[in-house]
């Protein structure tokens, strides 16, 4: 799309950025080198752009320079090669923001303790950018947030120095969609949505992402892009809650939920399988939809489904403990004297991320009921979070035999489940790893 009906000043700035994108002379800065920012920095840098990687945490910068792997989807060797070729420059120095023609913000958007959005990282990043903001810059926000964040939070901060949006600088929202540890869908294979304050900013973001991603989809505003992302994650939250509730009902009816899902999956249209589990973890699915319900509430609208789905998902760890308690009671073992092993504590398989992991709630509930709780996770050697402070154990047959129950919580691929089955007295399988129930294996 070429600019239509804009001022000469805007056109000059637009064309300057466009030319730099097309010639790959644009200097980029990714703000936030986490599971979203680092893969993006590497992908753009590999495509030939010079990329600054800004992060407030010096440890991230040090680890990158040492070739440490701290993001599961990024190969440290690639980072070292880009560093060596001076294509990528990680730094904690905000002054690089002045050098960048395009700045992409990938900072966390968590919830505060009282379950309201915490956009303090977005505000801090916006203030840092504003200090160095100059004509001819494109700013893109990728962090998931409630609709209007780009226009009503970021924009007023950027304009503080007198520069004008869509005239001197351009502003766009493009939701991140990284799926951690998903080899089938690396960043470059996941279509990207872009929504700018004007056609020009949308076009510039479209051109940039098109260099690394096959399908880029432009929408009419940042709000449309912000809301599309929340729809994606709310879709998952609700459907995971639905299948969790189905698991609870099927347990009551003594019907195998896993068989029911396999049967429903044979329907070639109008159905998408989700799987019950021990609860809902990660920093996105349990969190992002609450950004929407919070925004709706400010407009006097109560989103009942999101709140109900969150309630059901948060009930699952309680259900798992109740099931284990019931199984042990049949063996005349009370939880208060039981020894329980949590197998896998990350929020989902093959990642080493604990955020919102249901395993943490499970451990707390088991401990409150007096059980002695241990864990094994091949990717997480130690748990030191709030009231939990335990070291992971190695799996060996003598140790396994000492547990009254082993609870499969995170189905990491690298765990030897046959070995566990051979040596455990009782297994409660929340992920259907064993595909069928037996005299020592009970499934959710
Ligand atoms: N879970 C279930 N049952 C399911 C699917 C997931 O219990 O059928 C659980 C998982 O075990 C995990 C939680 O839900 O604890 C979230 O898993 P997830 O894979 O849905 O979420 P994330 O946070 O790893 O990644 C998601 C992306 N995942 C997928 O689309 C598959 C995507 O929604 C976003 O790109 C990403 O969040 C994000 O950054 O928003």
Helices and strands, with pairings:
Blueprint: H1 8-23, E1 27-31, H2 37-46, E2 50-54, H3 58-66, H4 76-84, E3 88-91, H5 96-99, E4 102-105, H6 120-132, E5 137-141, H7 149-158, E6 169-173, E7 192-196, H8 199-210, E8 216-219, H9 222-253, H10 257-264, H11 288-298, H12 304-329, E9 339-343, H13 358-368, E10 372-376, E11 382-385, E12 388-391, H14 397-401, E13 405-408, H15 417-423, E14 427-429, E15 441-443
Parallel strand pairs: 1-2, 1-4, 2-3, 4-5, 5-6, 7-8, 9-10, 9-13, 13-14, 14-15
Antiparallel strand pairs: 6-7, 11-12
Helix pairs in contact: 1-8, 6-7, 9-11, 9-12, 12-13
Bound molecules: ligand SAJ.
At CATH's second level, what is the architecture of the largest domain?
3-Layer(aba) Sandwich
Detail the poorly predicted runs.
none
If helices are DSSP runs of H or I spanning 4 or more residues, what is the number of helices? 15
Q: How big a fraction of the residues is strand?
A: 5-15%
Question: Nearest-angstrom radius of gyration?
Answer: 24 Å
Helix and strand element order: HEHEHHEHEHEHEEHEHHHHEHEEEHEHEE
Structural class: alpha/beta
Strand order of the largest sheet: 3-2-1-4-5-6-7-8
CATH superfamily of the largest domain: NAD(P)-binding Rossmann-like Domain
Taking all residues together, what is the mean pLDDT?
95
Profile the largest sheet: 8 strands, mixed
> CA-to-CA gap between the ends?
53 Å
Q: Assign the CATH class of the largest domain.
A: Alpha Beta
Measured as a percent range, the helix fraction is 40-55%
**Which compounds are bound in this model?**
ligand SAJ
